[in-house]
Design goal:
- The chain folds into 2 domains: about 45 residues, no CATH class; about 35 residues, no CATH class.
- Helices cover about 45% and strands about 0% of the residues.
- The chain contains 5 helices and no strands.
């Protein structure tokens, strides 16, 4: 069943090279499900085994590094708090 669904989806133009937000490709999930035929089909369509996520770009780099230095020295002040406010919750 799995192979026929994957074959139809690929035939209709699905991006076999797509990766999810965790960096996993369809091959990862097919392998986890034990679907060897799906893995082979996806690999033949160019689906990566071990994709890499693009690096994040800093949209607003800090004006100076004094807040980072204060953080390392154990001093916590308004500059340090400002840095933490800009970080996504998943990083903190």
């Amino acid at each position: 069943m799995c192979i026929s669904v994957v074959a139809v989806v690929v035939q209709y133009g699905a991006n076999s090279k797509a990766i999810d937000h965790e960096g996993h490709s369809a091959v990862y999930y097919a392998r986890g499900a034990g679907a060897a035929e799906c893995v082979e089909l996806l690999r033949s369509q160019g689906c990566p085994e071990n994709p890499t996520l693009p690096r994040r770009r800093i949209s607003n780099p800090p004006a100076n590094n004094s807040a980072a230095a204060a953080s390392r020295s154990g001093n916590s002040g308004p500059e340090t708090d400002e840095i933490f406010e800009r970080l996504p919750a998943s990083v903190i």
